[in-house]
Specification:
With 249 residues, the protein is of the alpha+beta class. It has four helices and eight strands. The chain has one domain: 2-Layer Sandwich (Alpha-D-Glucose-1,6-Bisphosphate, Chain A, domain 4).
Length: 249
């Protein structure tokens, strides 16, 4: 009598029954092993869709104070903004102590965009403060899911003057400060399927390079601009004195 799979089984043939039993057990073991491997693979990595990138830079620049106090200089908000963003084509004042800064294009794997953020800069408690929570990314030639990314920007920083810790007489002051930049992004496909240990270094690196460009501009131009401001103040003071002098005679 033939079974459903076409094998002939007779009561006197235990070898055939043994073969079928072994085959059945092998099939069950194989399926169980495959399921076990799949479970281990699925639990080995967690693919997070919401990622938080961050970067931080600190500033400590010793210098010699000029004839006019540097504490007064850091109140010159527009001057410090122009030092931080020396390319005038990429920075513009939009009102309410806020500047719109267009940064250089950034690349995240194969995705490129030009970021622009509105930065509020103001003086408070003897320090120059910067903050921003608005970021616009200009994408070109990308799928539609990248044009409507859900993200939160956080930019907080300050610049202030402190006494120098150096024993050198020609360095009696310091420009000090720090800035923190954070970005939370709900990653679309295919990035949402990539492990965070691959995505995080790339995203953090982009933010660090943005802060690095700001830091380099400040290091290159802040002390020079402070000296120029002192010279301008001297000229204005001399002009004011010369105008007052005739009336004092």
């Amino acid at each position: 009598m033939a079974d459903k799979v076409g094998l002939s089984i007779c009561p006197g043939c235990p070898q055939q029954l043994s073969f079928l039993n072994n085959t059945t057990r092998l099939s069950l073991v194989t399926r169980t092993s495959i399921a076990s491997v799949r479970n281990r693979q699925s639990s080995a990595r967690v693919f997070a869709q919401l990622l938080s990138f961050k970067a931080r830079r600190e500033l400590d620049v010793p210098f010699k104070s000029g004839p006019f106090p540097p504490e007064q200089y850091v109140r010159e908000v527009e001057r410090v903004v122009n030092v931080t963003f020396p390319d005038s084509a990429r920075i513009c004042y939009i009102g309410d102590s806020t500047w719109r800064a267009t940064l250089k294009p950034v690349t995240f794997f194969s995705l490129s965009a030009t970021p622009a953020c509105d930065i509020r800069v103001f003086h408070d408690n003897s320090a120059l403060k910067i903050s921003s929570n608005r970021l616009v990314l200009d994408f070109k030639g990308v799928p539609v899911q990248f044009k409507h990314l859900d993200f939160d920007l956080s930019l907080l920083g300050e610049l202030y003057v402190a006494e120098s810790r150096s024993s050198k007489q020609w360095q009696n002051k310091r420009f000090c400060g720090q800035v923190d930049l954070g970005l939370k992004v709900d990653m679309p496909l295919p990035f949402s399927m990539m492990p965070d240990e691959v995505l995080m270094p790339v995203g953090n690196g982009i933010l660090d390079r943005i802060l690095g460009a700001m830091e380099s501009a400040i290091l290159a131009g802040l002390i020079r601009d402070y000296k120029e401001w002192c010279q301008k103040q001297s000229v204005q003071t001399s002009s004011s004195l010369s105008e007052v002098a005739p009336f004092a005679m």
